[in-house]
Queue: 2 jobs
Job 1
Amino acid sequence: MNKQGLIIIILGAILVFFVWQYFLPVFDEVVLLRQDLKIWQTKLNDARNLNQKLAELKKKYADLSYEAERVAQAITEKEDLPGLLVQLEALSSQNGLILESVFFNSLDDKKNKKTSPSIAGEKILAIDLGLNGSQNSLKSFLKAIETNLRIMDVSAISFSEQDMSVSLNQNFRVSLNAYYR
């Protein structure tokens, strides 16, 4: 063999040795880094999905907390007589009635088996209202009671006779049941 062929073979062997020692580990490292990149991209996508689900859950929580607040207003923790009185006065005056008298009576389930709460675990507060106004005002008042946020049932309505020559207004007695916890 000639010297040039031998030198080319030796240089080729040295080149293969350098590639083997320095570049192949780098390629192996690149392969490992690409695998790590795929793993981290998967984790990033999972984190984005979780973040999106978290945003959806926060929105649902906000909606449910609003509903829970409305339920808490509908059925109060205690009798809340001052708040109920203000509410009844506002409803009667908004509908053209004069609230003349109010009587509250807390019904005990042991004494009144007939008037047991329609909502499990709730207590009943009986309310007797003395109202003065027209029949149309009474109708609108009853509609307002029906759509009011606080749950109330009308249990009785009574009319009293009035001399129509003196006034167009009549006296009404309305009995309601309000619920509380």
Note: Residues 112-117 have pLDDT under 50 and may be disordered.
Job 2
Amino acid sequence: MFTRKSLIIALLVLVAFAGTAFTIGSVIAADATNGLATASFVRKASADGTAEVELAQIALRNTQAPDVRAFAQRMIDDHSAANQKLAALAAQRNLSTPPPNAQAENLINRLQGLHGKAFDKAYASAMLKDHKKAVKLFEKASRGVGDKPVRNFAAHTLPTLKQHLAMARKLEKAHG
């Protein structure tokens, strides 16, 4: 009992859905070919930013060194603010903001057991390594993420991360 008209309508609906899927797929592919998918960046940046705050809180408890304490407080202030902005962007896009990954959790657990100079050395080394990675991630995202507000977030946050990297180099030099 299918009429020619109903078959044409069904075919048009099918083409419309295929076009939608193609458009969504094209956006994801465009993101990936430009270097970094939006969801991947948001997950990585969120997990790493949360870890930075947790590590800095441990630093405030486990060090007596004024420069390490000052650095840790700056990490808490700057990364907490960035984490809030990123969480808002993620929520608008229905993207998850996971907790720190297993590698970060291992570092958190290891640093919790250190105090004094041993802590300062390990924390300074970790901050240098982490901020080198963060600068690379945010540089890539500021050029290659397809979602413009997320790309702008990365570009706006990058100078602060570069400052953190410079500070981490000084900290590592003093305590490494």
Note: Confidence is low (pLDDT under 50) at residues 10-34.
